[in-house]
Amino acid sequence: MRGRSDGGKKKPVIVLVCIAAVVLVFVYLFFGSSNHGASAIEYGRKLGLTGDDDVTKKDEASSTSFYVDDDANGFTPRSFPVCDDRHSELIPCLDRNLIYQMRLKLDLSLMEHYERHCPPPERRFNCLIPPPPGYKVPIKWPKSRDEVWKVNIPHTHLAHEKSDQNWMVVKGDKINFPGGGTHFHYGADKYIASMANMLNFPNNILNNGGRLRTFLDVGCGVASFGGYLLASDIMTMSLAPNDVHQNQIQFALERGIPAYLGVLGTKRLPYPSRSFELAHCSRCRIDWLQRDGILLLELDRVLRPGGYFAYSSPEAYAQDEEDLRIWREMSALVERMCWTIAAKRNQTVIWQKPMTNDCYQEREPGTQPPLCNSDSDPDAVYGVNMEACISQYSEHDHKTKGSGLAPWPARLTSPPPRLADFGYSADMFEKDTETWRRRVDAYWDLLTPVIQSDTVRNIMDMKANMGSFAAALNDKDVWVMNVVPEDGPNTLKLIYDRGLMGAVHSWCEAFSTYPRTYDLLHAWDIISDVKKRGCSAEDLLLEMDRILRPSGFILIRDKQSVVDLVKKYLKALHWEAVETKAASDSDHDSDVILIVQKKLWLTSESLRDLE
């Protein structure tokens, strides 16, 4: 009877609590979502085509959620919701919050938490990423190498943390980049000239007459090393994780310097073997001795025959017991890897990789690290684990004592030796180069009325094939991230052999970059390809919107049905059609070119900040 009596007293209380909870949820959903919607899609100043400087406010009712209109061809989106402001720098596959929410069991000592972990479909953000309050169109190249708008990347902690190293300095409404780094406080230009002098290169120019063209900078900071190398016709893939130095890659891309979010952890870097002439680490805080030297062996995999590893770190010069121990063990490791010291001065040592397989074949049996198995493909990279072994050269590279590449700029148009790996002929390569030269000329004819010479700097070719689209842009002051889809021929090694750069990627997932980092996207058949794989075209369009800068452009070259699909989404994505034209020079009779521009829009919070 006591239990019954207590239950009778509690029941009305529980019922009242439940009713109150339901009412509160209803009030929150009704008023909360309305307020969010009102702040979601209120336009800022429109740039580019319209020249309309008036601030336009969209109908609040249309922006509270995802709406559709039903037509003869199915559902057409009227608008997408806008993500919360705290997601203005969202990188879906490098989202630390996702790791916590999904309770992924990762080994932090192996840097797995900095590797890619993509959300399943039910956890994706199907909304538009808002710009930060007060966002401005980025400063144009080449001025952007040295300064960016503070409001675009409102993070100044690096300026304070690295104030003695001249990484960056806050000056009024801008952030300046004096060109310093952790190991070159007085400027990357002097440091680069010193490295060239160490190697006895003519005129202290590190490209050595065009023989050195593609570099990898590991732990790059804000990429001043790569930024200053551009003056020497050297393309550098500046690589860093989204770690305690948050936004360093975002700063690099805002400056107009090639960069990519990545880490030496457990997975191979998304670059094929023999891609770089030089790898660089300036106090990159990497334990090169861990796991039998597996990280150093990953650098070995991506270095060309005769390639260099420039290492600036206390271990190279300090005399305390711990640094001396690391230096001895690292020296022994690289000796077993057949590397030799090319130069050593002050705080920097430069090792060189062998030109042939001779040293590998002369090692004593059982020497560690071992040679990779013959069935191990050194070019398989997407989601592939690193291996603690040495990749030998191909028979061609061994016989020619090197990669056989022409110096830059001749290598851009010279048929790469690795064409034979795909059964491609030199004639096919030359025809592809000429075809894309004509196509790029046609693109620029269409873009000329709406762009200036400095409108575009960071470009992405979403399906790069042999890199001929990028090659055709060589006379323009731009750089191209050449993306090779992971489910097709791995032609990225041909792209690197041309002196260009890029990464392997699956467009069923988000790319490893910050929002608002590219001025122009080239989408050749990529939407069709994604649909064939059973992935969402809508997700891809939202991803393209995420990585495209406000007022940036997309060149879509695809079937008429795909172009029609994209046109349905223009209003929802706040894109504007610039030009639609049949592709006269096409692989398919039905191909159409659609050029769209992303409008600049701001949330109501941003507008209030401007006021």
UniProtKB/TrEMBL annotation:
The chain crosses the membrane at residues 12-31. Its main location: membrane. It is a single-pass membrane protein; Single-pass type II membrane protein. It is an enzyme of class 2 (transferase). It is found in: Endomembrane system; Membrane. Pfam families: Methyltransf_29. It comes from the Eukaryota. Keywords: Glycoprotein, Membrane, Methyltransferase, Signal-anchor, Transferase, Transmembrane, Transmembrane helix. Its EC number is 2.1.1.-. InterPro entries: Put_SAM_MeTrfase (IPR004159), SAM-dependent_MTases_sf (IPR029063). The keyword Transmembrane helix applies. Belongs to the methyltransferase superfamily. This is Methyltransferase.
